[in-house]
């Protein structure tokens, strides 16, 4: 996750009677009707959603993804921009499931990578890390943590090889409707990433998300999760943890926001930005810029964007139309002025020379 934590957000398809109807909301002082109801007067009609899930549920996986580009395309419900930081040593497997606009993804990644993503306005994502140490949004994350990204939250992550996570992406309007029926809300989570404290409700959310995909040794199949229950399970965990989720201290700009601005700049220009460019774009000092990247990814911006550029080089060398490009053109276009250093860094990150990558993917014999 993070997130993540990030392309193509999903949201629920429901009948008109199942939609949130503010005008029919009862007086909060008089009564709070249950969110789960066969014929609710307000909130969300779980029964209708379950029926639609049976008709519309779709699932895929596990599929193998090679490198950061295929990983980005395989993940469901979040727009992730990933950068592979080490050679691929193991398989990357991605399983997905969706019902309407509710989506779930289970991933096991065979390479170390960093990523940035944005949880859009209409989505609240619940994630649980299921394997290995990772760092999300400047926080050390351990196996078993249950995490929430609020709407409009920025997600940054630095994940080791073998990282595995299962997460669900749920429309904010669904979670808000469920939360209101519990007498609470989710406004305090806007733009935030939080690790939920250990409560029975948190453990229920963790087990629901982590248990979404159950592989069997014989067939390697998985069982799509009970997606219709996700809004209620997420709202329940948030409500049970509300007294722990105080409003965060406001700063002029967060580490995640600084990093996101700089990555956006690189994506827009197609090359690693310089320190001066990043400072101007983020309106911060060089020291603050360095701190943001070290806190988020564990490396200064120069190292991060060297890895970013190498990842882009790999994509170009393995992408369509690579029969007409050269290693030199690729390196120079991404700001590498010394081809020997480029080849050295590339080999460290991907376990082969750039000429070998190009030869393998294009069918041309390697040079040298």
Concise description?
With 368 residues, this protein is of the alpha+beta class.
What does this structure look like?
By secondary structure, the protein is an alpha+beta fold. It folds into two domains: 229 residues, Jelly Rolls (Sandwich); 108 residues, Homeodomain-like (Arc Repressor Mutant, subunit A, Orthogonal Bundle), CATH 1.10.10. Helix content is 36%, strand content 19%. The protein has a seven-stranded antiparallel sheet. β3 and β4 form a beta hairpin. The longest helix is centred in the last third of the chain and has 18 residues. It is globular. The N terminus is likely disordered.
For CATH, the homologous superfamily of the largest domain is named as: Jelly Rolls
Structural class by SSE content: alpha+beta
Chain oligomer state: single chain
State mean pLDDT (0 to 100 scale). Answer: 75
What is the total domain count? 2
Overall radius of gyration: 22 Å
Helix-strand pattern, N to C?
A: HEHEEEEEEEEEEHEHHHHHHHHH
